[in-house]
Structure formats: structure tokens, C-alpha cells
Amino acid sequence: MSDYAELHCLSNFSFQRGASSAQELFERAARLNYRALAITDECTLAGIVRAWEASKKTGVKLIVGSEVLIEKGPKLVLLAENLTGYQALCGLITRARRRAAKGTYRLLHEDFVAPLDGLLAIWLSDGDASALPWLSSLFPERLWLGVELHRGADDTARLQRLLELAGDHDLPAVACGDVHMHARGRRALQDCMSAIRHHLPVAEAGAYLFANGERHLRRFDELAELYPPELLAQSLCIAERCSFDLGELDYHYPHELVPAGHDPTSWLRVLVERGAAERWREGVPTAARAQIEHELALIAELEYESYFLTVHDIVRFAREQHILCQGRGSAANSSVCFALGITELNPTHSRLLFERFLSRERNEPPDIDVDFEHERREEVIQYVFRRYGRTRAALTAVVNTYHGAGAIRDVAKALGLPPDQINALADCCGRWSSGPPAPERLLEAGFDPQNPLLRRVLILTGELIGFPRHLSQHPGGFVISEHALDTLVPVENATMAERTVIQWDKDDLDRVGLLKVDVLALGMLSVLRRCFGLIERYRGTQWTLATLPKEDPATYAMISRADTIGAFQIESRAQMAMLPRLRPKEFYDLVIQVAIVRPGPIQGDMVHPYLRRRNGEEPIDYPSDELKPVFERTLGVPLFQEQVMELAIVAAEYTPGEADELRRSMAAWKRHGGLEPHRQRLTSRMLEKGYTQAFTERIFRQIEGFGSYGFPESHAASFALLAYASCWLKCHEPAAYACALVNSWPMGFYSPDQVLQDARRHDVEVRPVDVHYSDWDCSLEPDEHGEPTIRLGLRMIRGMREDDARRIEQARQCGAFRDVEDLSIRARLDASARERLADAGALSGLVGHRYQARWAVAGVEEQLPLFAGVSAPSEEILNLPAPSQGEDLLTDYATLGTTLGPHPLALLRQALRAIRCKSSRELQAVEHGRPVSIAGLVIGRQRPQTASGVIFVTLEDEFGLVNVIVWHDLAERQRRVLVQSQMLRIDGHLETVDGVRHVIAGRLTDMTTMLTGLDIRSRDFH
């Protein structure tokens, strides 16, 4: 055992300083037989949970600490001796961070007024001893002088000077390493990160770089050459005193939601009984009653009542404010959550596993996700802050890590490459890359992969990828506490105003037992609420998610045709390809549809067997009689995480808590490993019980697929509710639904142009933007038969300000506009707003076509105060020639992003026929396997994780959409054409399988020049 403990060590959570992860540091410390390792990241505990996990894995003791620099004062390493010291450290970091902008801190002398019992300090002296009396009074018998030697030219003199300083003031000295990396080999990366932090090339950052590579975890014999034995021994004395462990944290839920006369248990019972009576108005069914009693008993045993009360209170507030919300995820497994109104999914109608949600063995708070309208979620967030106060509520953090493009940008800049080469290198990575660019990418972009400087860039990029880059805020994961949060974890400012975040990543909370309530945003809820409102104003009919007609045949027929542009969850290219094959006919079919196009089922080779069984092409059988109840609802094929958990319980004799540990391992195996013990245990037990080796291997391929993107049945069921609602509205109220989609954009796969084009193909009339009729939002107007049409809103005009549009609305209420000048004066429009209206064609009702409108707005002069209200002399209106159809089309796309005139491909159809390109309508008559040529606007490119490099491209012409498959080899050969084209010609062959039609690309041709400047924007790789 080494007689040393490292007390000053930075991990990569000291952003752009530390060059090693906690796991790397603890693994090396274990190899060197260190007694303990202190992780002392600069004024942060963001990485301490990861360090705690690494400590438990390696057996090396963790000391919790932080390096801080006091403003106009000394530099210290603060170490938590016990829980009291840890709480004091959290409070110091919180105060320092809260008074500074995001990413910085200011620690002042006055922050040390509060008692600092339990906090040890190592003073890193720069030779100025003036702060020593103050430090000695703050840390009596708890202050040391840190001696850090790194084989510099003056080590001997420095050691002597520091020992004299310690002796003169009767202060114990201790050896420290100022460690920035686990091994010397990381020095190049550490230099690079220092240059990045100081916004300098490495060649110019000499003053900020270390003189050598000694700031790593060194062997004891190396340390013994530098430090006297008593300094090394002192490190063990300090390590022995530091007994704090993160497992000591005692977290409690808020209590104030319970009214007088009740405790949390009794009040939760009251709310559940009220909700159950509302849910089951004819009496609670026996099965539901038994499930409620079981859940309430377990909730009381584990003392989670306050958690459920907290979530119920948030949902209650949202509904009182008419904010649409929907609980999802594992909460859908709970009858209590259904009774409380947290989720709309009745768990008695499904076989969802309650232990997926709450487990006696796991003894951790359940994770409840609640989605709110994406445009109104901030109201809910601020309610939580008001309800509990800034000291007791904060958002959890998300650790943003380096990916390929970002890492190569920072490294290339630090190594001095010019901006154009940096951009080209980043483009070589692509959005989806999590590694350095491949050599063929570099060659295509004109780089020599063997160039020494470029090789250095690529090596450092590979090391930097995956490192923490900064802390950002979670979209809505709240941590709420009975006591001040900064007694558990430091709190800092978020980038957004009026928000604070804790310093721990969302994935770290479970390990230390902190409650998280997810207040999430979902754009589809905004769409549904808007659509319900439009229908109520137009027809007087009030719909809700609960009252929409169930199991509507027309809706399922539309879904089976893959007529789902704009529908929730089943609008993607892959989902639309699956719909005609699965042909959903009832709600549970939709649950499977939502979940089946996911990495788990695909990688586990479960999709095709399920489809064959559903279509009667192969018999339904089960691995064993005992597994028939588990897999019966999915025809003997495991599709969901819950089924894998049930399989482990039934076939491998797991307990429910152990099955949940399997689920956690599924979700984390790519990052942390940990699946191998489950593989061995499951395989051995299942083979003993007679299951085949092939079946167990297939199950594990699926488990690994869930690690890429876990999608449990509980999530699928909750999403299927919204998918059905969106499809019913699209089927029966297409104008209102399209209108709501456009008003809620940006969201989903499709742009407003594609949504409106789809609506027009469904015989919905769309009317142009017009200041006589248009509000800010798109709205509904009756046609001559009383059916709703869509009036485009002023929001469609690119660059139009909402306050200008609102003033137009208000002015119009006082009477129709006489002319452009009247509009401009009454709505107080400046020249920019007038020009945008003219270019967008919104003034056609006042002055005619765009050219006339441009002339008219140019003649509007600003009124001086003396002549306010006095009309200017009218000018003679010139009869300017109208723009051509092509000019109108170009301007429509440039100003509105869409057109109500002919589709661009309609104007080009004659030219396309001349080069033998078929339309999407003509494609319907082509037989399977025939060669075809098509052309269309590129509206989307996708590269799913499970597609082995295949790119799916969606083309649009005047008649509809064409789905194109580009195999990996072709995508590599013609990457530039594939990625950069706005209009693409595909030469290939048609493939028709189970009613699903694709064009398999053989050659790609960029036809963008035919568009002559048309501004069309595709949605790529989302």
C-alpha cells in the first residue's frame, strides 16, 4: 500500500483544465495503490457523483473537495471532513456561483462569515503570508500549507521556502500534486485545452501552459524523491480525517402540500379516492381497486406520498390555467397516477409492469414525466419556483459533451488552422458523427490524412470527444427539497433569466436518491389545444383528449394508408413505411406501431417475425408455456422493455427489483457497461430451463438495442393516445389541424409549406395573407358551403414582428383600411414592416399585385407631429406590369416559405418529362423492380441509428411525396450531391413490398439549378 493520498486533483469537470475523467483517475490511483484521491474541481461538485461511482468500483477512497480562488485573496483547496463540512462547501460554491454569470464564480471574503466546521483547508501560497492570520482563525486546527513540486528548476528553493513559511507560523505542510491528468500521455490534450480556454493557438499560449507533464498521478517512488516523508505522511493524516461519503445525504420531499388535519398518507388517499370516483363514475372496478390499494400501501411503506402530491399539485395548476398536459412514461403503469389525473392511460386496460414504476427492492422515488404545451411550459416552471422558492427548487443540469464536429473545431483552432479549413474539417464530421472524420471524408474535402499536423488534430479530437464541455439546464427536470438545496448540492445560475440549476447531471440523481419531477415540453400538446380551440370557435364543439371518439374506423383507415404527415409519432419516413404493413385497426395496434420502429426491436430481429405472424404468414408460437402470458399480446415476439423484465422474472427467476436493475443496465450499457453479468445469469438460467441458445442470443441483441434507444410500452401507450388524437383531428378536421400545426411551428418533421401542401391535396382551401383578414396566427374562414378554409396569418411572413401584426389586428377592428397610407398610420408601421407586407402579397386587397404594392409603400411618408391625422395628398397610381408566375413563385418562397400558386415542379414538369423523369402520381402505375427516374424537392434526409449507414430521402413534387433509399456505398460516393442538393434527380428502380413503395437510388444528380434561386429548406438528419 502506498503511503500517499492525492489531495489536489482536477477531473475533466474542471472544464478545459482537467484532461482525464474520474474513472481514469481512480483506475490509475488504484494501480498506484493510493490510499485516497480527492477530486477538487474548481468551484464545482458537478463531477463528484461520477467520482463516487468510480471510487466504489476501484476501492480507492474518495475525498470530496473543491479548488477555489478568493477574489483579492488566497487560493485554497477545501476538503469535506464530514457531512457538516460538505454542506458548508456546497453553500460556499452556491454563493460564489449565484453572484456571477453562468460558467464563472466570485468567491468573496464575506462568504466565509458562516461557520465552516467540518471543512479542511489546504492553502496554496504564492509567497504572500498576509492572509494567514485570517485563514488560521477560519480553520483552527484545520489548515495546512500545500507544497506542490513538479520537477521545476527551483524545486529545492521552493520547498525550503515553503517549509520555512510553515515553520515560522507553526503550520503543518502537506504534499499535493495539482493533478490535471491521470497519466503523462494526456499532456498534449491538456495543453490544447488550456489554449482553447484562453482563446489562443497553442503556439501563442506558452504563458498559460505547464512547463512539463508532471501534473499527473505519479508513482510513490517518484514522489519520495521530491517530498520529505513527513509531507507525504501528512496527506494520509488528512485522508484519515475525511470520512464523508455521498451516501450520507439525507433528502426529504416538501411537506407543505398537506392541509391541516391530514398527514401525507391520508391526504394522498383523499385525492386518489376523489379522482377514482371521477374516473370510474359507475364504481371503481374490482381489479382497479385492488391495484390502487396495492400501490397506496407500497407508496406509504416507502414514504413517497409527498412525491405524488408534488406532481399532482403541478398538474392541478396547469389544468387550472387551461394548459394541456399529459403524464407519460412509467407513470402510465400506475393506477394512482391515473386517479390523480397525472396520466390519461388507464393501466387496468393494459398489462404494464408496476415494478417498472415503483419497486420495494429498489427503494428509489419513481420517475414521473409530465408533458406540457411547449409554448406555455414556462408558466409551469415559474409556478414551481414560486411555490417552493429559489432555495428549495432548481432545475437539474445536463452535462454537454464534445461530439465530433465541436471537438475538431476547438482542436483545429487551438493548433492554428485557418477558419476555412476548420469549417471544412467540421463539415467532414457531419451532424451524426461521434468520432473524428474518416480518411475518405478528408480526401473528398481536399485534405491529406497523412499530413502530420492533421494527424495530430485527429488524435487530440479523438481524445477530446466525450469530455464534458459545459453544464446546461435540463429542459424541465426539477429537483425540489424540504430543506435548502445547497445543503445537498451546489446551485448556480442558468443561462436563462429567472432559472437556477443544481450542478449534477440528470443521470446522477438516482445514484444519490434525489427526487426529480420532469416538467417537459411537447409541441403536439400545443397543436391539440390550438386545434380544440379552433374547432370550438368555428363549430361550437368542445373536444378534449378524453372525449374524442374512440376506435374510429376512418381514422385507422387513414393511418393504414400512411396518410400521416403532421401526425404525432407516426409521421417519420420509417413509421410511414411501416404503417401499410402493420395496418393498425385498434388502439393497441397503435401502441405497437409507435414502439416497433425503434433500435431495440429492429436490432433484436423482432420486427419481421411480428409482421409475419400478424399477417398470418407464420404460426404464432411461444418460447414456453410460462412465457405465453408475457408475450401473448405481441404474438409471441418480445417488443417492449417491460416484456424483457417480465421474461427475466419468469424465465430466469429475477425478483422485480433485479429486473429493474436489468432495465437500468440496458439503458446505460453503452456508456458504463454492466450487461455481461446479466447476460451470463439470464443465459445460464434460461438454458437450464430448456430455452434455446438462439432465443437467448436474440433476446440479448434486443436488450443491446434498447441501450441505443429504450422505448418501453408505458411510453408507447402514452404517446399512442396523442398519436390517435392527432390522427382523428387530421382525418375529421383537416383544416383546423393543419392550421394548428402551422401556428405551433417549429415542431415535427414537416415545414409549414409541406403541411399546407398536404392540406391542399386533401381538398382544404388555403387563402393568402391579406391585411384585410389575416391575424397574427393562421385562422379558419368559411367557404361558400360553410366548410372551413385556412387563412394564412401574418406570422407566415418572414421577418414580420408580432407586435406589428397585433397592431394591424387592433386597427382593423375600428374599420376597414382605405389604402396603404391609412394602414400604415393606424397600425403605426415602419418602412420595414410595410415592405415585408408588400413583398409577401399581403397588400393585394388594397393596391393589387406585389409591384404595385412596392410602389405604394415607397410613397408613404412618416407624418410629422404637426400634421398628425392629416392625410397626405394622394398620388396617381401607376399601372405597373404584374409579376410572372415564376416571379411570384420565387417571391412566395422567399417571403412566406410556401406558395398558394402552382407547385414549383408543376412549372418544371414539361422539362422533366423531356429527361424522362416521372411524377409521384405516374409512379403509382410502375411495376415492382422497374427502372425509374424521378425528380423532386428534397424535404428531408434521415439516417436512423439502426440503418447501417443507409440514408432515407423524401422528395416532394406537385402530386405528393416519394421515398428514396440511398444505400451506404452510394451515399459515400455521392455524398456532396446527396447532402447539398435542394432538388434531386434519382435514377434507380422501384421497390414495392406490402403496399410500401420506395425508389432504390442507383445514381444521384443535383438539379438545383433548375430552381433558379428558389428558397426551399429541408429538414435533415433529425
What's a quick, concise take on this entry?
With 1022 residues, this protein is of the alpha/beta class. It is 43% helix and 14% strand. It has 42 helices and 22 strands.
Description:
This protein has 1022 residues and is α/β, with parallel strands linked by helices. Among the domains are: 4-185 and 193-248, TIM Barrel, CATH 3.20.20; 250-373, no CATH class; 404-465; 904-1020, OB fold (Dihydrolipoamide Acetyltransferase, E2P) (Beta Barrel), CATH 2.40.50. Helix content is 43%, strand content 14%. Strands 7-8-13-10-9-12-11 form a seven-stranded mixed sheet. A six-stranded mixed sheet has the order 1-2-3-4-5-6. Strand 2 (61-69) and strand 3 (75-80) form a beta hairpin. The longest helix has 20 residues, at 713-732. The chain is globular and about 95 Å long. The model has no long low-confidence stretch (mean pLDDT 88).
Basic shape: globular
- Percent strand: 5-15%
Distance from first to last alpha carbon: 52 Å
Structural class: alpha/beta
Largest sheet features: 7 strands, mixed
- Count up the helices: 42
**Could you name the CATH topology of one domain?**
TIM Barrel
- Extract low-pLDDT stretches: none
Oligomer: single chain
Q: Record the strand order, biggest sheet.
A: 7-8-13-10-9-12-11
CATH class of one domain: Alpha Beta
For the secondary structure, the number of strands is 22
Give the radius of gyration. 33 Å
Mean pLDDT: 88
What is the CATH H-level superfamily of one domain? Metal-dependent hydrolases
Reported CATH architecture of one domain: Alpha-Beta Barrel
Helix content: 40-55%
Enzyme class: transferase
GO molecular function, one term: 3'-5' exonuclease activity
Family: Belongs to the DNA polymerase type-C family. DnaE2 subfamily.
Main location: cytoplasm
